[in-house]
Amino acid sequence: MGYIIENMNIDSIVEKLETVDHSIVSVIGAGISKASGMPTFRGDDGLWNQYRAEDLATPYAFARDPKLVWEWYRARMRILLQAKPNPAHFALANLEKANLTTGVITQNVDGLHEIAGIRNYVEIHGRIRYARCTVCSHIERWDKLALAQKDIEPPVCPECKENLLRPDVVWFGETLESNNWSLALDWTLQAQTLLVIGTSGIVHPVASLPYLAKRNESFIIEFNIEETPISDISDFSIYGPCEKTLPEFADKIIQKVGRSDESD
Ligand code: BJW
Asked: Which of 6, 89, 145, 150 has the most other CB atoms within 10 Å of its CB?
């Protein structure tokens, strides 16, 4: 089990990072967008407490009832269009601007990381703002357009004009896009420090990345409001809302690098 620290002691973790090179990699999950008003999946107020994943987030669910699935995605889109990135997203963008990061591996489909200004990211579970044809693979932005439409029938592909569009996300039982997964593996293997932020760490294969990093002797720091399976292999777990803890951590790392540059 990693150390459990109070927020006040982020200084001590930053001091323990012996060298800060340019290879911080972050694996992020739904918890980072909670303060932006986006619901998480698990936990008391999580989406899977209100809905069954089997009814909404599998290819079988879409084949059985595409209208139900599209209604659920439209409802989530309505919430997302009101949402803005929060200080945790901006903290990751600041680390990137300070040239300290390799990339962000995001399980989130909300795109808030990009709006915050993060440029090096891989959206491993897809993008909710896009739809793709179930047959011809045509890709189309659907967010604002779909909300403007009164019609709540599942949209038909404008390219082949024949088959249904589906949300461009990865559902249970589907494999991850191979280029995305390769990049996530490459980044994880390059990470001197891996930040694991706001994820329950139970959905595979992403949940395996911290274990891979650990075997590769990366330093692992978890940011969560509670213990997760990743806590067991983390060097430090910083328990608290990441919209508070991550900005403090990022600012201190950036200051530390500034200090060491001055002494060079
Ligand atoms: C805060 C905070 C704050 C809150 N500050 N922290 C049996 C049958 C079939 C498949 C499987 C099986 N067993 C295993 C599998 C594989 C399956 C899997 O892992 N299942 C497990 C649940 C058991 N995985 C897959 O199917 C994946 N594909 C795959 O493995 O392909 C190979 C394969 C194919 C076929 C068969 C077997 C293997 C695909 C997974 C796709 C996941 N898709 C979703 C939906 C995306 C689209 C959408 O959004 O609609 O991705 S599910 C959902 O979970 C979403 C998330 O990205 C993902 C992870 O969730 P995340 O981000 O961790 O969120 P939460 O809610 O779980 O956690 C939030 C955390 O934040 C909590 O810890 C809070 O404490 C914390 N928090 N506020 C800091 N302020």
From this structure: 89
Is a pLDDT exceeding 90 seen at residue 2? no
Question: Residue 33 is inside which H or E element, if any?
Answer: none
Catalytic residue among 22, 89, 125, 204: 125
Mean pLDDT to the nearest integer, 183-205: 97
Please tell me the distance between residue 245's alpha carbon and the centre of ligand 1 in angstroms: 23
How far is C-alpha 252 from the chain's CA centre? 23
**Amino acid, single-letter form, for residue 68:** L
| Identity at 104, one-letter amino acid code | V
From 139, 169, 199, the end of a domain falls on 169
Specify the CATH number for the domain of residue 236. 3.40.50.1220
Q: For the residues of 63-129, what is the DSSP string, one character each? A: HH-HHHHHHHHHHHHHHHTT----HHHHHHHHHHHTT-EEEEEE---S-HHHHTT--SEEETTEEEE
Give 203 Cα–ligand 1 centroid separation in angstroms. 4
Q: Which residues line ligand 1 (CB under 6 A)?
A: 29-31, 34-35, 40-43, 46, 57, 107, 109, 125, 169-175, 198-200, 202-205, 223-226, 228, 241-243
User: Which tokens in the block code for residue 245?
Assistant: 């803890």
Question: Is 263 inside any structural domain?
Answer: no
Per-residue model confidence (pLDDT) at position 214: 97
- pLDDT of the residue at 4: 52
Q: Tens digits of per-residue pLDDT, 84-114?
A: 999 999 999 999 999 999 999 999 999 999 9
Mean of the per-residue pLDDT values of the chain: 91
More confident residue, 255 or 4: 255
Report helix, strand or coil for 38.
coil
Give residues with Cβ within 8 angstroms of 52, minimum separation 6.
Answer: none
